[in-house]
Amino acid sequence: MFWNGLQQHKKFETKVMPGCLDSCKKEETALYNQILEQGACLRIKVTGRSMEPFLSSNDVVTIKRVPAESLIPGDLIFFTGSDGNQVLHRLVKAEITGGGIMMLHTRGDALTVFDEPFKVNRLLGKACRIEKKSSAKIIDLETKRKKAIGYSIVFFVCLKCRIKSAILFLFGIRNKKISKMA
Fold this sequence. Notes:
The protein has helices at about 25-35, 145-180, and strands at about 5-10, 15, 40-45, 60-65, 75-80, 85-95, 100-105, 120, 125-130, 135-140.
C-alpha cells in the first residue's frame, strides 16, 4: 500500500518516502505537503539525469518547507510540474507579476531549455542537504559557500543562454542579408 512506505528516520528526524507511483500523483503530492507542513523534512531519492553532474540518480535529497520569499536564484527547489510529477530543479528567477502573483522560473542543470514558469502554489519545498551515493558524501546546501556556488551556476547558465541567443540572432541576420543579396 502507498502509505506503508512512510516511516520516521531517527538519525535525521525526517520522514522517508520511497519513489514515485504514477497512478497516485495527487495523493503523493498531498502526502508530501502534509509531511512538510508538519515541519518535518522529506527525503527523496533522485531519479533522472536533468540535474547532472550536480545530482545523480540514487542521490538522496532532504527537502524542507520554506517561505517562497526566502528563495534565491541557485536554490534547488522541489515542486509539482504541470504534468503532476514532482520535480527538483534549480531556481533561476522569482518574479512578481503585474497582478501580484509570484512566478518561479527553473531549469535542470543538464537541460538546454528552461522549465515553464509556474505559480508559487506548486512549490513544495527547498533542498537543504544532499547525500551523494557515489562518494558517501553529505553536502549541506545551507552554507554561504554552497549558496554562492548555486548562484554562480545560475549566473553562468543565464550567460550561456544569452550568448547562444546572440549568436543565433546574428546568424539569423546574416542569413537574411545573404538571401536578400541572392
